[in-house]
Amino acid sequence: MVLGKKVLAIVPARSGSKRLPRKNIRDLHGKPLIAWSIEAGLASKYVDKLIVSTDDDEIADISREYGADVPFLRPSELATDHVKTIDVAIHALKYFESKNELYDYILLLQPTSPLRDAKHINEAFEIMIEKGAKGVISVCKVEHPQEWTNSLPADGSMDSFIDRKHLNIRSQELQERYRINGAIYVAKTLDLLKEKTFLLERGVVAYIMERNVSVDIDVEEDFIFAKCLKEIDKNNKIQDVSV
Question: For position 241, what pLDDT does the model report?
Answer without folding.
Answer: 41
